[in-house]
Design brief:
The chain has about 200 residues and is an alpha/beta fold. It has 8 helices and 5 strands, in the order αββαβααββαααα. The radius of gyration is 18 Å and the shape is elongated.
Length: about 200
């Protein structure tokens, strides 16, 4: 993964940033993105696509990434914006904000997925980048851990939905609880149309 990242470095490209998001699929809560820059010689054992790591491993790596990154940034896009501009655009906005908020300006940005973000910096989209690129994988961990921590806190405000377990994702239990109790202010209305339609039928 580190070798993949370093293959982009040239005389003109010395600072590389990776960005990724977490939370495109949930019924509730924000979408979160992170951007990370590492020195070319920094490698952290175990960094990988956040989806293949245990929660415990992600938490441990989160702290190490924050300590050893040259720069990092996290952006949180709330439910109202997701419903207003759709989840794809909200995800791209989150990644764009995360990159723009970095305290170090990168020469090149690697973005996970097949979409690009508008930036004053050159951007390359990498399909399945979180399993290929070290800096994208690190960003995926920062985004995922930040969002999971946030959903656990929000679960205390809305305990009936068990967000501390499902993190807002559409598990059967979560869908059933929405049918039983209705939507909270933190549910994505545009994601609930089918569920709420079932209630009214």
């Amino acid at each position: 993964m580190k070798k993949f990242d370093n293959s982009f470095l040239t005389e003109k490209i010395k600072i590389l940033a990776g960005t990724d998001e977490a939370g495109r699929g949930p019924l509730a809560g924000p979408v979160v993105a992170a951007a990370v820059i590492f020195s070319p010689d920094v490698f952290i054992e175990g960094v990988n696509d956040s989806k293949v790591l245990s929660e415990l491993k992600r938490e441990k790596l989160f702290n190490e990434i924050v300590l050893r990154a040259e720069a990092y940034s996290v952006s949180i896009i709330p439910v109202e914006v997701i419903d207003n501009i759709n989840i794809l655009n909200a995800s791209l906005l989150a990644m764009k904000e995360a990159v723009n908020n970095l305290k170090v300006t990168p020469h090149l940005v690697l973005v996970d997925g097949n979409k690009s973000i508008s930036s004053g910096t050159p951007v390359i989209s990498i399909i399945k980048g979180d399993s290929k690129s070290f800096c994208i994988a690190a960003a995926s961990i920062l985004a995922k851990v930040t969002r999971d921590r946030l959903m656990k806190k929000l679960a205390a405000e809305y305990p009936v939905y068990f967000w501390e377990k499902n993190k807002g994702y559409p598990t059967k239990q979560h869908r059933d609880l929405v049918k039983k109790y209705g939507a909270s202010p933190l549910h994505r209305r545009t994601f609930l149309k089918n569920i709420l339609t079932e209630i009214n039928e």
